């Protein structure tokens, strides 16, 4: 077993995408779009009509293994930043966070940063999966997001 002292608990990946922040943010803030670009291959489906509009919103996602997660939005700035903490329905949030930050980079591109933060994660059953969420997996999500956002 890996010693958690040797594993970074905040992992990020960034790149530029040739699309506007608004177009990219729409793909992130609409949970029904998330399975299309999920680089962890963990998301199966979300009902239409759950577009996030503010911190405090909660959206429901079904995972590929069939489990359901409530995602509690804790940071939100339209077109720029969104972050959520997942939990099992009706249960305490175990302490991990997914964040997306978008920064305009010229006339027609956006710097996208995706972060997974598990510094507060205490559920030992979730630690192995958290350890496997590497920069490469985050970049896979950004790359898939780019391929969708950059298409006409």
From TrEMBL:
UniProt xrefs under InterPro entries: Polyketide_cyclase/dehydratase, START-like_dom_sf
Name the CDD domains on file.
SRPBCC_7
Q: What is this protein called?
A: Polyketide cyclase
């Amino acid at each position: 077993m890996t010693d958690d002292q040797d594993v970074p608990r905040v992992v990020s990946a960034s790149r530029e995408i040739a699309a506007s922040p608004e177009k990219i943010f729409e793909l992130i803030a609409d949970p029904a779009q998330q399975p299309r670009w999920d680089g962890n291959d963990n998301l199966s489906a979300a009902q239409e009509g759950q577009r996030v509009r503010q911190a405090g919103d909660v959206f429901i996602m079904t995972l590929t293994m069939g489990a359901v997660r409530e995602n509690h939005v804790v940071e939100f700035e339209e077109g720029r930043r969104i972050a959520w903490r997942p939990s099992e329905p009706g249960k305490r949030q175990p302490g991990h966070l997914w964040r997306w930050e978008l920064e305009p980079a010229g006339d027609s591109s956006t710097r996208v940063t995706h972060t997974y933060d598990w510094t507060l994660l205490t559920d030992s059953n979730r630690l192995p999966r958290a350890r496997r969420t590497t920069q490469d997996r985050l970049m896979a999500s950004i790359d898939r997001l780019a391929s969708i956002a950059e298409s006409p």
